């Protein structure tokens, strides 16, 4: 009979709780593979190859995503049993909806849309957004409603990756689309908001995922969230880049 | 003071309850504009321009849609207060899940997937389906869960249009992809199942939409359902036709 090795066997390793650093590395690997910084639509944007009309389509569709962020955060608020948790999470709703001292992210995104040449009041109605945008964004609401609070929080962890992408994007937008410069407040604000948020969320996930299985669920929630961002750009690319076939009823680029 | 015309004014007309024929014509117009029979992916399919790998991607992704149909119909069953309604609607669950005398639509779709060269057990796991598929299909569940029963029923009315598309498709699949011939039972069955279903549903919608506003809600539910079908093909086209960029983790065509 073989002597059992002192080394943990593979099954033990697969079930072992990850340390904070291991978990963070695992989450970062998800971002490296799936976050939308590598999407061809963003690559084109950063290379200056998008037309004004394509940037309009992006700003219009992405507005729908922006508009549900404080709704998804309110759902998470409604599910958090702990006042300390809710006080911390409430910041997100304020960041997007604004308060007496700040216009908030939704308003800032409308300014970006306006800088692309869209009428912000029309953008606000959501008319002309792609069904693919609506379905992907609504899935974000499904996740925070229907999965555990742990997974709902973990799905926000794309904020671990967003400061790097936003830094690059602002630089490239200024360089290639200087007429957009007046509309970049949204991104400037996110650069100081997101790091606090992601730090809180990753600590929450580490402390509340008590088993490896829960750590895997949290990782999957981040993977699914990355897919939600990615699919929005797929829909944009299909409709407005190649083959350039917006579905019936969707926004049409003028003089494209 | 102007004498009021005997003709109903525009506001009255916009609020007038549609007759059965008017409502049906309105619903048919939605299909003419938005049903996926005009989608470029289907046009390619019918022209014989899809590769086996592209047909595999279609069969794999569409399986996810097929697999949730009896779930969405069970949700509708659960919301129907009337035993007569539920008895009629139950047929749909049987059609897809099967019974002692029939294998059911889900099994038949797996046979189609197998005829494309996929392993049906792998298809059943759903691994490799596009996020865009998942989000669009899940939106169908959102609609039947969250809107009125009237709208949930109306969202099934794409069956008004499916027999014509399926008749064409079966002819074109036999012509261009003869190696698929053994996998077409699903479509043969739908040709006799769908007409009864759509007849019941349109009668239900007409009888239960008591105001023009409700008729408009029903029409919008059909529009949204068309978008759900259309968006699934957008995702397929983007990933497997042009530019041909499947997202991380999705099915890859071999030897493409």
* Mass-distribution shape of chain A: globular
- Oligomeric organization of the protein chains: homodimer
What is the CATH topology classification name of chain A? Heme Oxygenase, Chain A
**Helix amount of chain A, in percent?**
55-70%
Name the average pLDDT of chain A: 94
- Within CATH, the superfamily of chain A carries the name Heme oxygenase-like
Could you say what the CATH architecture of chain A is? Up-down Bundle
The most extensive contact between chains is: A-B, 30 and 30 residues
Cα gyration radius of chain A (Å)? 20 Å
Write the H/E string of chain A, N to C.
HHHHHHHHHHHH
Q: Please write the CATH class name of chain A.
A: Mainly Alpha
- Cα(first) to Cα(last) distance of chain A is 75 Å
Number of separate helices of chain A: 12
Explain this structure to me?
Two copies of one chain form a homodimer. Chain A has 256 residues and is an all-alpha fold. Chain A has a single domain (19-240), classed as Heme oxygenase-like (Heme Oxygenase, Chain A, Up-down Bundle), CATH 1.20.910.10. Helix content of chain A is 70%, strand content 0%. Chain A is built from twelve helices and no strands. The first copy, chain A, has helices at residues 10-15, 20-34, 40-46, 52-79, 83-97, 105-115, 120-125, 131-146, 149-154, 162-176, 185-208, 212-240. In chain A, helix 4 (52-79) packs antiparallel against helix 12 (212-240). Chain A is globular. The A-B interface holds A 33-34, 40, 130-132, 134-136, 138-139, 142, 223-224, 226-228, 230-231, 234-235, 237-239, 242-243, 245, 247-249 and B 33-34, 40, 130-132, 134-136, 138-139, 142, 223-224, 226-228, 230-231, 234-235, 237-239, 242-243, 245, 247-249.
